[in-house]
Amino acid sequence: MTLDMCASLWPLDANNGDDDPLETDVDMTAPDDVIVTASKTWHVPHVPKKYATFLQNRRTIYREIAHMHRLTGNTVDSGCVGNTGHDNVLKLFDVLEFVQPSKTTIFLVLELASGGEFFDRIKFDGGLADADARMYFKQLVAGVQYCHRLGIVHRDLKPENLLLGDGDVLKIADFGLSAHCIAAAVGHSSSVESTCSSDELLGVPELPSQVRRLKSVVGSPHYVAPEVTQKCHFGYDGRKADMWSLGVILYTMLVGGLPFGKDLTQCPRFAHFTAWITDGDPLLSPSGRHKFPGFLFPPSIGPDALRLLCSLLHPEPTKRCTCADALKSSWLVQS
Predict the structure, then answer these.
(1) How is 168-233 classified by DSSP, letter by letter?
(2) Is 333 inside a domain boundary?
């Protein structure tokens, strides 16, 4: 069976696809040469196991392309009329596919980010200056808010996936693990106001209803939210998982290191922080220095930044702040 034939077995509609690989993996053991997914059954010739990986990889790539097209404003249902993307989200201009007898190569024509990775800008011996961290983080939150408003969560936010363009403009890149998080936005543009401008879109709070619960355990060690790795039967809110990642990135900007180990279940600092933040409600307490644990936060971090960090790194997702909350925080509104 050729690769083209394999590809034709899996028609892709990324807007209607499920993001949990446990529910979308092809069942190669089905009898009578039947391929079964959560929603459909195809009677096709038996597909050798070696091609199953190809089909899954192709499906993942197509989902990433579909999400980037939507964020760039290339699709009819991209969220609002006249949407041309967001300055802080890397744009996808074109997709080229080079087909050979033994393999297929897909090329993405992306916006140029001449400043390289944001990871290289962070000094891992003390972090960024407070003003620089504020400038970059405000751009990052604005870009993530834009993605969330269009019903897309990134799920792999980290400094290595952030690029810098001209004028130190931060760009969110690498949507390979992204997923739809708003059920109403999947396949129907009516869930997002279709008469707004791209600037107006940024000022509208994130959609409060029809949240899809995701179950895929994805992300990068040190940056993945605790609820993602817990494999809860009810899944997790991808937007809240993104907010946790933002908290880790902000901590890295300000401190120059990571707040917790890569395995939170085995990290003493995370256990101590969880016990501290769940003992009462420290985020509502007066901003005294003694209210924040010194084992995690060095004295160089001011009280406004501390409160924002704690609201982003809250172990309980429902108590974690949103992008709109972060943009209104006292630390980010400083001039």
Answers:
(1) G-EEE---TT-EE-BGGGSS-GGGS-SS--HHHHHTSPPP-S-BPEE----S-TTTS-HHHHTT-T
(2) no
User: Quick one: 190 exposed, middle or buried, by C-beta within 10 A (0-12, 13-18, 19+)?
Assistant: exposed
Structural domain range at position 13: 3-109
Distances (CA, A) of 261 to 217, 268, 316: 17, 9, 18
Contacts of 216 (CB under 8 A, 6+ apart): 19, 20, 21, 22, 155, 177, 179
From 77, 156, 237, 242, active-site residue: 156
**pLDDT tens across 125-174, in order?**
678 999 999 999 999 999 999 999 999 999 999 999 999 999 999 999 99
Indicate whether 335 belongs to any domain: no
Residues near 84 by Cβ (< 8 Å), separated by ≥ 6? 72, 73, 198
Res 80 pLDDT > 60: no
- CA dist 30 → 5, 42, 230 (Å): 19, 11, 30
For residue 168, indicate whether it is catalytic: no
- 34-to-20, 25, 43, 189 alpha-carbon distances in Å: 21, 13, 5, 34
Please state the φ and ψ torsions of residue 104, each to the nearest 5 degrees: -125, 130
Last residue of a domain, one of 85, 109, 133: 109
